[in-house]
Amino acid sequence: MLSRLSIRERDMVSIAAVIVILFIVIRFIFFPALDRRRALANQLHSKKNTLQEMSELALRYQSIKSSLTAEKALAMKRDKSFTLFSFIDKLAQESNVKENVSYMKPATRKSDNGDLLVSSVKIKLDGIVMRQAVNFIYKIEASDKLVYIPSLSISKTGDEQKLSAIIETETIMPSEISNSK
Fold first, then answer.
1. Burial code of 21-38, b = ≥16 C-beta within 10 A, e = fewer?
2. Angle CA(143)–CA(60)–CA(68) in degrees, nearest 5?
């Protein structure tokens, strides 16, 4: 069939065949290879970011773990007769809010890792002024007894100057101390 074509027509068919072959190679081999390379580069970048984030989380985990170990050691050194309820009661007396206590609800639960107990006391104060609330909260947070306030709710009562406060306090305690009582 090519033999019947003139030289000029054969050259045109050859050029057209080369163009079609180049188009097929570029379209179905070269561009997919570039796309795959780009996708792999993006995936590599994503994996590097994930690795960096995991490294940061591992460092943070170690920091939290060592902090917990230090807090556990401090809790072990605390007086064996320490109870959060009596500590909060004593601070209420020292802060002159004892007469404003509506209720104090103690609770104990196991920590997430199971080797510690989390002792908590929820206290409601009615008819206090801001200075009393701040003084009481400061005494709780500034104590060396590892007592924390995870939740605090303060609202105005009917009188302009008076407040109502619900304060949740927590501390960790070694489970063997609590089990022996």
1. eeeeeeeeeeeeeeeeee
2. 35
- The pTM (predicted TM-score) of the whole model is 0.62
84-179 CATH pick, 3.40.50.720, 1.10.3470.10, 3.30.70.60, 1.20.140.10:
3.30.70.60
CA 77, CA 58: separation in Å to the nearest integer?
Answer: 29
> Three-class SS of residue 143?
coil
Query: What's the first-to-final CA gap in the chain, in angstroms?
Result: 105
Mean pLDDT of 62-90: 86
**Which residues, listed in sequence order, are joined to residue 172 by a DSSP beta bridge?**
118
d(CA 168, CA 122): 4
Q: Give per-residue pLDDT as tens, 74-87.
A: 787 888 888 999 99
Query: Count of alpha carbons within 13 Å of 175, Cβ hemisphere only?
Result: 9
Calpha distance 124→14 (Å, rounded): 94
| Tokens of residue 5, six digits | 């074509």
User: Using H for helix, E for strand and C for coil, what is the string for 98-123?
Assistant: HHHEEEEEEEEEECCCCCEEEEEEEE
